[in-house]
Every structure is written in structure tokens, then in C-alpha cells.
Amino acid sequence: MRTAKEVYDDFSGRRKAILRALTTDADQLFAACDPARENLCLYGYPDGSWVVDLPAEEVPPEAPEPALGINFARDGMMGRDWLGLVAVHSDAWLIGLAFYKGARLNKEQREELFALINTHPTCYEVVSGRIEQRPSGKRGVPPNAARSSPKVTRKTPSDDDEDAEEYAEEEETAGATGNGAGWEDGEGDPCPQCGKSYRTEEFWIACDNCDLWYCGRCARMTQAKAEKTKNWNCGSCVEKRAQR
Q: Which residues contact 228 (CB under 8 A, 6 or more apart)?
């Protein structure tokens, strides 16, 4: 891997896999971590899949390995505490693996990589309930990230833009009903496209590929459209996919 974005994409896919194992698939994870078996590790893969398996046999391993023996602690503590313990070790593995894969990055690229990683809460923060994991395609606000946000290009939809008009109408409705989801104005990173900060009466949506959050106006997306859209990708990700 040669770029910070490529390393980040690998990290993001593995992180999603780990989070799914620790939340949606927690029952399957619990069953897979049989204390009667040998040392087991929780692996997350870039495609979003996960597996509980024995560690690599080679010493030293080709790449950083997850924590050993998570199955041995399963029955010795409360289920939620055990998931939190696995989450902490998984966070350490994800970060370690990312910087292992990015070993050839320079100072600026490492800063870019960390800024991208830091747009997400840790697995432990999600599992412990310290921060809410917001599903893509729903109203929300991007998680707080490093101050070194990427440069943004400001773009304002034209007055006769139908999507902009539809968004404006829904924005008024959202403001009237108070769908702020408990977030405060100005929380999180600004929209990567227009640079505006989050406001509680506005709709925001996360890209299903890069996980960056966009205001509904720049995304040309409304709550009604989002509920009918299975996956949404930002313009940048669509363009990169087209160039491959």
C-alpha cells in the first residue's frame, strides 16, 4: 500500500468488520470464542467479514496479530465487559496494523492517515456506549476529528436546482419537528464539500465507502431519499471507482 487513503480504506473495512462482530453479531462471536479451544483471535478483513481463528504459526508473524486468547476471558467476566475488553485490544490491533501497512508513508501522509482514522470513534467507544454509532443514510453528525480537516471546495447549488429546493423544503420540516437527534450545532467535522458546520435542523448523510459525512444539500440527498437508498457514495468515491 502506497497512499494514506489506501491504508485508511483497509483500516475502515477491518474496523467495520470488528464492530459488526462486537455488536450485531455479538451472539455469534460469543459462541465462536469457546474457552475449551486453544488461543483464539478476532480477525477483521477489509471486505467487512470477520472470523475467530488461531493465530499465525510463523514467528515473528508477517503482520501485527490481534490479541491472543480472547476466548479464555469469555466466561470469567460480564458479557458487556468482555466485549469491551475485546474492543480495546481490537482498537490497538487496527491502529498497529494500519501504521505497519503505512510504514513507508512520510510525515504528511502519516498525519493524513491519522486524521482519516480519527474521524471515527474507537470500537471501544461504540461498544461501551460512550459514543453512538450512527448508521449510514440516516440523520446525524460526523464524529469529532482532528483539527487538521482536509481542504474543502465551496459549492452552492443554483437557485433553480430541484434537489436543492427539495432539500430546503425538508430542512424546514426537520427544523419544525426538532429532529436534531441530540447533537449540538457545530459538532463534528465540517462538510467536506462546502465547509459548513452541522446544524441540528439539517439532514446529513455518511458515505458508505469513506464514512465521511456530508450535508444534505451537497449530497443532493434528503431524509426521504435516504430511506429509499440502500447505499450512498460521495462524488469523490464515485469518481475514484470510475477511474479504476
A: none
Please identify which residue in the block is written with the cell numbers 429532529. 179
8 A C-beta contact, residue 177 and residue 223: no
**Cβ pair 155, 244 in contact under 8 A:** no
Buried b (16+ CB within 10 A) or exposed e, 122-142: bbbbbbbeeeeebebbebbbb
Other beta carbons within 10 angstroms of residue 147's beta carbon come to 8
The set of cell numbers assigned to 59 is 514467528
- pLDDT per position as a tens digit, 90-142: 999 999 999 999 999 999 999 999 998 988 889 999 888 876 554 444 434 44
C-alpha dihedral sign at 215, 227, 172, 161:
positive
